[in-house]
Amino acid sequence: MRKSEVLAAESVACLNKALCHLKDIWEEIGIPEDQRLQRTNVVKNHIKGLLDMMITEEESLRTRLLSSIKSCRKQLDTLCLELQLPPFEEERGVTMLQQEKEIRTQVEVLVKERTQRMQQLKALTERDQDLCDTLCSDPYALDPNAVPSLEQLDGFRQHIASQTTEKERRHAEFVGIKRQIILCMDDLDQLPETSFEKDIVCEDQEAFCLSKDNIASLKLLLGELEERKAENQAVCEAHREKIQELWDRLQVPQEERELFSEHMVASKKKNLDALEAEGRRLMELKRLSMRNVTEAIRSEIAVLWEKCFFSSDQQQAFVPYFSNDFTEELLGLHEAEILRLKQHYEEHKELFEGVHRWEESWRLFLELEEKATDPSRFTNRGGNLLKEEKQKAELHKSLPKLEKKLKAQIDVWEQGQAREFLVNGQKFLQFVEEQWELHRIKKENEKLERQLKKSKQIEVDMLYGTAVRTPTKRRFLGTTTPSKTRKVPSVRTPGRSKPPLAGLQERNKENMGLVTGLGVPLQSARPLPGH
């Protein structure tokens, strides 16, 4: 039996005992039956009223519990729907009170969960709005009034993290570009003019809108400034080259140049102004020293003639070179000519350098050939003889390869330029063939000369009898007297340097003289010889 049932039985017993006690009191007092009945009815009504009141209160409690259960169930369903959770499953076999408590507790938990999610959503939305204001981007697509799911919150956090990273990247890019813009403006001595430029340079960099359009505009502005800066640098560099050239021609003292050294490096506006002023000053000095400058240019022209292997006819074609009327017009003609020659040399530099390499190799080859006829070389004990023979063999192999390479380069050049590539007024490959032919004829002449001497010696021996040979045999080997040569006439120019035409002619005049005694005319070209 439940304790509540025992307690109820005790209450009934207590009530019966109380009534019996009242009955004894009434009998002892002598209260009449009708009054006893009346008094008993009062007791009954009192107890009944008390019990009715208690029943009413308990029924009210039951009603409240049922109402609470209903309300909590409804709220719980709404919360599960808002939080995107599965419906709540109630525990079976529990009392109404336990059921109400369980449902109410679950409601409180979900209400707290919803509050936390909404607070997180609010914080994320505020952070997103700040990022949107800075990056000028659209807000994250999430209803700020609806309860987000855990997945939506995670997605929102990832979006915030991505936007934050993008903001940091753009901010770093902005700071870097801003620094370069300020440096460019400083180099150009330029102040911010437009509102956009003022926002960049003057405003707080944290308040600058880091939109894609603004970043693109920043890059565009930087590109324009760098282009102007590059133009200034190019102009300054052109002034520097001209100033350096005038310094050299006017023989300006080094001390005076060093005083101007600051402007020969930087390219700011003040440097450009200083360079322009110095250029004007030097031009005035140049005008006053026209003859010296013209002579200096002529020396440079003579060097370029030699580098470019100009023939005497090509040199004579520049008539102003031989004029002594030193005027501004004459100087201008010389300046234009040296610019043309420099451009000509740069355009064909690879070919000219190849010709120079062949020329040096050929000169060395002829020197080694000449040494081969010297009898004193056999007295050498230092190994030079072997080295020279090895070097001569290597040159004999490398020269045809170099000639073949030059032929390919010349063919390409002539196809592109639609004209012949001339060196000293003659096709270079024809000149090379002639040199090899002259070398071959020289060798044959030397051989014939040795045979002739030997024949004469035999005749002498046969005429006067056999003579005892002495060490004069070794001396005989070295008594070959080189043929006398006639120098090739060269064209003298009024300049200070040796005429450039003398280069190849002087180096090969011995071979040319052995065969013909005359200079070799540079006329036409034939294919490479099969040497």
Tell me what the structure shows.
The structure is a single chain. 72% of the residues lie in helices and 1% in strands. It has 17 helices and 2 strands. A two-stranded antiparallel ribbon has the order 1-2. The chain starts with a helix and ends in a 16-residue tail after the last helix.
Q: What descriptors fit this protein?
A:
72% helix; 531 residues; 1% strand; 2 strands; mainly alpha; two-stranded antiparallel ribbon; elongated
Brief write-up:
This protein is an all-alpha fold and about 525 residues long.
Main sheet characteristics: 2 strands, antiparallel
Strand content: under 5%
Multimerization state: single chain
Counted beta strands: 2
Q: Helix count?
A: 17
For the termini, the CA-CA separation is: 136 Å
Poorly predicted residue ranges:
470-531
Protein name: Protein regulator of cytokinesis 1 isoform X7
Coiled coil: 222-285, 431-461
Pfam families: MAP65_ASE1
InterPro entries: MAP65_Ase1_PRC1 (IPR007145)
Describe the secondary structure blueprint for this structure:
Elements: H1 3-29, H2 33-82, H3 96-135, H4 150-188, H5 195-201, H6 212-250, H7 254-259, H8 269-288, H9 290-307, H10 312-316, H11 328-347, H12 349-371, H13 384-417, E1 422-423, E2 426-427, H14 428-464, H15 472-477, H16 502-507, H17 509-515
Antiparallel strand pairs: 1-2
Helix pairs in contact: 2-3, 3-4, 4-6, 6-8, 9-11, 12-13, 14-17
